[in-house]
Write a sequence for this structure.
């Protein structure tokens, strides 16, 4: 089966995190799998078989044509039987290169719809691009049930079948979250002391600090609540594209009760510092940070946005609020702050919920079975 080459393709090397362990799992089970991404730090540190092709995230006609030509040349050289592309630019270029070179199985793994938060001409352009990718793909995988529903609702696929692996997620729960050890707890205490939040009620957020993640509403609501002895802990880099309002940035920089620590490679001890995780995103493919928080016993206040809605069990591991609705967000944040018993109840149910539904091996085994089925079907023919 090793002669059947399989290539996963993502635009940015940062997106290799979304496939952590997948290539290794496929190779361990006899498949000749590798990955393509743009060069970068994460690419350099990636141990599995890989090939580097620069791809720009935003539209750049000259650069995109060069990337397409390189993909075509590489596919002609290695002759893959399956390509699996995710993230917008890699998906468009990968699908086109696969079609041109006759790759028999072209799988589009949809990790989210950027067009959900777009309007006007940009929306029309991205709808057109999505329809092209979907039309020339032979298989479609959505990483959550609600994302599948949204794609069908928007009528992007022309009635093509869409599959979801397991209960959804990009790659299942990272195994590092399966155990909470003494080192995690001690590190959490150290962080809390360094940030002076040991005796505070901590609302937490992890993710890119941008508009689509709902940061404008979260910061505005938190500052309006003026809760005694409460802080908002923001973990993630501030993005220049899709950037938050200037007034939001000013509050993040100047409000003593808002603590921004930037990107952190080890999130486990930070989750343990939180009383509640707030996930106000406007759109997701799935929402890994939500299940990570719950794996650490932290309940989630979650928007009912696409992808995010699949990550909690309502009134068991957290509560939903209407996406982009500051009034409902404010109500639930205040409610949680005033009800420690409710937080404890949700906390006790959070970890068992995500461990039972989002085991990484479920996702990887489902993908393995799909690949074997496609390969065997081709060999029979």
């Amino acid at each position: 089966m090793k002669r059947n080459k399989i290539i996963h393709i993502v635009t940015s090397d940062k997106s290799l995190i979304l496939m952590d362990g997948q290539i290794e799992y496929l190779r361990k089970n006899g498949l000749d799998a590798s990955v393509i991404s743009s060069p970068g730090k994460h690419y350099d540190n990636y141990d599995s078989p890989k090939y580097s092709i620069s791809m720009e995230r935003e539209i750049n006609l000259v650069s995109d044509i060069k990337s397409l030509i390189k993909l075509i040349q590489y596919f002609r050289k290695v002759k893959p039987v399956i390509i699996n592309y995710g993230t917008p630019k890699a998906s468009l270029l990968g699908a086109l290169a696969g079609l041109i070179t006759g790759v028999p199985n072209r799988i589009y793994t949809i990790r989210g719809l950027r067009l959900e938060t777009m309007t006007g001409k940009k929306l029309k352009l991205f709808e057109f691009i999505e329809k092209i990718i979907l039309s020339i793909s032979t298989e479609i995988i959505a990483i959550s049930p609600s994302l599948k529903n949204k794609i069908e609702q928007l009528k992007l696929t022309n009635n093509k079948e869409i599959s979801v692996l397991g209960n959804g997620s990009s790659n299942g729960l990272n195994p590092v979250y399966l155990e909470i050890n003494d080192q995690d707890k001690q590190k959490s205490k150290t962080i809390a002391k360094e940030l002076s939040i040991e005796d505070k009620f901590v609302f937490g957020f992890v993710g890119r600090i941008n508009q689509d993640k709902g940061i404008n509403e979260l910061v505005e609501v938190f500052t309006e609540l003026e809760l005694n002895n409460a802080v908002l802990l923001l973990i993630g880099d501030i993005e220049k594209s899709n950037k938050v309002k200037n007034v939001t940035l000013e509050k993040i920089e100047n409000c003593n009760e808002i603590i921004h620590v930037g990107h952190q490679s080890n999130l486990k001890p930070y989750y343990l510092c939180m009383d509640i995780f707030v996930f106000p995103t406007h759109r997701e493919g799935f929402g890994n940070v939500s299940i990570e928080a719950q794996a650490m016993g932290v309940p989630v206040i979650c928007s009912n946005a696409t992808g995010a809605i699949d990550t909690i069990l309502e009134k068991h591991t957290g509560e939903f609020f209407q996406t982009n609705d500051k009034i409902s967000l404010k109500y639930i944040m205040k409610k949680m702050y005033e009800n420690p018993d409710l937080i404890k109840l949700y906390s006790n149910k959070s970890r068992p919920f995500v461990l039972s539904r989002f085991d990484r091996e479920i996702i990887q085994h489902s993908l393995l079975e799909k690949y074997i089925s496609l390969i065997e079907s081709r060999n029979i023919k």
In short: The radius of gyration is 21 Å. The chain has two domains: 5-172+360-380, 175-357. The chain has a mean pLDDT of 95. Residues 232 and 258 are 5 Å apart (CA to CA).
